[in-house]
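Problem 3 from the worked examples.
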Amino acid sequence: MAKRLSSASQFKPEGEPESTSRLAGVSAAVRGHCRRVAWVGLLAVSIGPAGARPDAVEATSATAASAAAVAIPAIPAIPAISATPATAASRAVQLPWRWQQVPRVQGRVTARDLGLVINLDDPYSVEVGELYARERGIPAQRVLRVRLPRQPNLSETELRQLRQEVDRFFDDTVQALALAWVEPWAVGCQSITAALSLGLEPELCRDTCARLGVSAYFNSGSSRPLRDHGMRPSMLLAAGDTASARRLLERGRAADGQLGRRGALPVHAYYMLTDDRTRSVRWRDFPPPGMLRPLAVQTHVQPGALPASVDEPILLLHTGVPQFSGAEQLTWAPGALADHLTSFGGQLTGRSGQTSALAWIDAGATASYGTVSEPCNHVQKFPHPQLLLLHYLQGASAIEAYWKSVRWPQQGLFIGDPLAAPFARHEIP
């Protein structure tokens, strides 16, 4: 598979973040707008023909103690639902939260499109991989068994050998890959999911904070990534242990087609505004808070690291903190997605000093994401809050929704059940 990244020069950043003074004006006017903000989401369910690219934010190290390297704006006041009509003064101020459009997608990646890779030298991989093949009905001709070292990082030579085995074994009907292991999770400064799917980018280690090439799969309308983009997105079937992995696979299977239907369980998407300014840079791309009534999805924009409520089933959770605890006390909807913007969430094992993305899986999420090397806080290196949700709501599988939400995925590790699709409209044989 050739590396499928368009030139980074094709990406022209949009303007700098709004000033603190302007955001103060937003905060003063937001009460008059909040009613409109709450119901505009009803209109946003109508998916447009083309995707809007996310705003660019100048980056600073996500591990830095201060945000001195970038002018990160103050976080605005949270809109509260109000019946007060908008005033003339408030109408003159544009709120930062507006729905974006994504391409309309027909179909999705299913079990018939998925290849499975098992590491014979890893007992976890053998047990979890064989279980996944049985649960998802993946036949033997689409299960590749390899031998890999059980360590966090593969060498470039080992990665090339793995890619050769993958390309020889799977035919063109296999559009995506499930990798049944926890380690290895990186190849140098790249995640193993990106390195296997997009190819090696050895120059990345010279400056892991650099701007990168844009993934051709970003915000794509395709449900056939190999055919249309020449790449197979991949995802690790990773969890804290085999018992947690079994629960993950159960959740993924149980999620399929269970949400977004008449009488379906209402679920919630939480977008958290934390006190960590460096890691809260995604706030500009949050959706308006409100109810998407046709799909019974409520979006929330709230202060804090995690939602205060533990009773409402969570479909999506985006936050920005280096460490968190208490996620296991939340109620997770089938097929839930969750991640935290920080430097080393993708370092699944070891002692990075930051919470591993595995914590989301072990708490009850079905898929997650984290970076394996210092990304700085380029928003393009992390899942776009709206694109992830909107692709998922169209019936995409977890692997598609997550991959399509990251513009620069080279350092990002995708983990979870790739086939989970809670908003699937029907089963595809």
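Problem 4, a separate protein:
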Amino acid sequence: MFRTLVNAWKVKDIRTKILFTLLLLLVYRFGSFIPVPGVDANVISEFAGQYDMLSFLNLLSGGAFGEFSIFAMGISPYITGSIIIQLLTIAIPALEKLSKDEDGRKKMEKISRYVGIGLAMVQSIGIIAGLQNSRAGVNVLLNNSILTYITIGLVCTAGTAFLVWMGEMITEKGVGNGVSIIIFASIAARIPTVAESYVRNFFTGVDRWWFLPLMIIGVLLIVGGVTFIEKSERRIPVQYAKRVVGRKLYGGQSTHIPLKANANGVMPLIFAMTIMQFPAMIGQFWPNSGFYKFYQTYMSASSDNIVGPIVYYVIYALLILGFAYFYTTISFNPVEISKNLQQNGGFIPGIRPGRPTGEHLQKISNRLTLFGAVYLTILAVVPTVGLGAFDRASSFGPTSILIMVSVALETSQQLDSMMLMRHYKGFLN
């Protein structure tokens, strides 16, 4: 990866793209320290460390939520909006029809953008209102008025809209997928803070001497495992029959259909995590309610009752499995692939063309989806349970590492493609 980056830097137009991307990320980091007027950032930071959902939101915003800056909501409302539109694609025939052509997909992206901006408005006002009413005597707002809420909503919405625009600019004129790059930068910004806390605890004796080396080894193993699985793929062999058209012979070549071991990436995990943390966040605003007490006892991972963690992780795993199959259904169509193969004279050795080919591809896809779901579940649950055994918890976990590694690999592959397109001999050798 580093060799690719060094070689890409030597090409002028690619270097311009890299510098453009870095410039926008610099603007993003500066904006993360511009506060929203009318909010006590110290109180927000305290709440962000107590609530799991807010802690995760703070991670995805690169600490901007803890400071409650203009980018406090981050890019997450846009991601949530995209997920909602994708879910509605199955239920609404009009959206399903739009998703099948290029112009329709552009319209769906525009709809997702509007939904995300609307969610940023609702989410920012809702979180502030909930936190303001969650504790007696604790004021999140410097001035509890309607104008303050409107100001907060408009500023946070404008911040999210600017990040969406920034992501589109990075995708168009920079390097990598813009939204992914922004999320990568947000998570990377939290690494020094997390690392500093572990190192400080090591030297002050808060943690045992072997805890920090164990964490380093664990992170290296997770990075290595994630890299291996994210680059792994199942190659289905395809043979094209020979045919004579006029005086020319066509076909006869062999190729393959690549299916990634984890084709869905981290999206099933993020969506499952959001759903699991949402009831807790809502309940924490009303800590004396019967619902919150029931949740804390029988559905919380931190419950003293053994039933709570078991129920939590079982539901968590089922949600990951369900969303993994959902995203596979959206992104992979074996019937369409089998039709295209048959029309072009292609076939899978040992499998009849047409319907049997589609069933064969569906069977392989289901197995890979199950593997990916189990892989994501293990990645999310095992390290978290391990940290809990040492009475330690951190929002920067395996999910964050998975996102960073996936984005880094995706960006590296894009740089490789740019280099190959320009026939850079030093890179090819």
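Solution to problem 4. The chain is about 70% helix and 5% strand. The mean pLDDT is 79.
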